[in-house]
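Per reviewer request, we include the raw input and output of the structure prediction for the construct analysed in the revised manuscript.
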Amino acid sequence: MSERILVVDDELDTLEIFTRLIRKNTPYEVETSPSGEEALALLKERDVDLIIADYKMPNMDGLELLKRVKDNDPEQLFIMITAFGTIEIAVEAMKQGAFDFITKPLEKDHILFSIRRAIDWKKIRGENVLLRREISQAKLPRKLVGESKAIKEVFTLIKQVAPTDTTVLITGESGTGKELVARMIHAQSLRNKEKFITIDWGTIPESLIESELFGHRKGSFTGALSNKRGLLREADGGTVFLDEIGDAPLHIQSKLLRFIQEGEIKPVGNPKTQKVDTRIIAATNKNLETLVKEGKFREDLFYRLNVFRISVPPLRERREDIPLLANYFLEINNSRFRKQIKRIAPSTLNFLEQHNWPGNVRELENVMERAVILCERDTILPENLSFFSPPIKSGEEYSQILKLPYKEARNRILQEFNQKYLSNILKNYEGNITRAAEGMNMKRQSLQHLIKKYKVTFPKP
């Protein structure tokens, strides 16, 4: 069954424009209503996938209609039509839950792009559970990718330390790929046929950490209904990866130190120690030296872990790897979602290379996953990108944005994205709007509208 769109406007000419446009250019069904009151009555009789409503209507304006619709169904997708220059109304609509807004004068490309983006989002949201299940079941390769000097140094260190039993400390920001480094060390070691077990402190209640790591005897505490081997013993002969070791409680740190020094564990409730041959690889995004000075991390444990350190560089320090990584994630997500996208447009790669990537490789992976889902052609275009962190911006400015309501913050970030992207494109084409529009796969008039809308300045040809 095709998606249904409801257009609400008191101007019959506008209703006719939307009806013709949607029926001619999309597979969607379209219904119209000349007022907010009639729209609400229609919604009681049947569901629609998307509502497009003008702000300026008699009796009940678009904002009031939006409020009534959201009160009844918070998940209903809603696009507001506003007059050019009334940005305050658009921001208020976004704050109240509108998915997007369209400014007058109406432009075909902008309208169709906004509609398709909303319908795609509804499909993604509706299929999310099934999608995640398929993704979790897919056996997809995961590896460190790059040709930069910085990442090649990491590869060299992995190759050097993997054949040994030396304890390794991996440092780096969140999302840089520290667990991938640990897995590569295990895969290239003599222990690669045995288990690789990850321990994430955040997923284990503090009261159960000792039992999870070292095991326990039956009856040693309430709820201990049977003997438990513990994760360190489960990985006997293999490798245990202690992710975010800086979060380990102090009382556990002393027991880890004993294990690393003696190769022995003492299960909860058991007076005897047990020998275990498990290699330890730890990782952190914190400065352990600072934690030691603050008394939050044991100095002796730090020195035991810091025998061989590998620092994984942030993505912003190896920007030359971004095209390679982006194409790698394109290949993976083509397989995941049964897509046949052939390439990433040069203009898209250009913007990816300029982004600051505070979330590092994990953020790039998420951006590419969403881009593949939304892309309807054989090429990833800039319009398919959706960033989960702001473009390059100072920490102070970003912290102020984070204090805004969600929709307003999103709108601010999208505005900066458009300004930076359009400025860069126009600079690359030396201010030639016609050539820039061709490079963006967009009509010249649409680009002119965006330039005016976002007040973009650029050198004239």
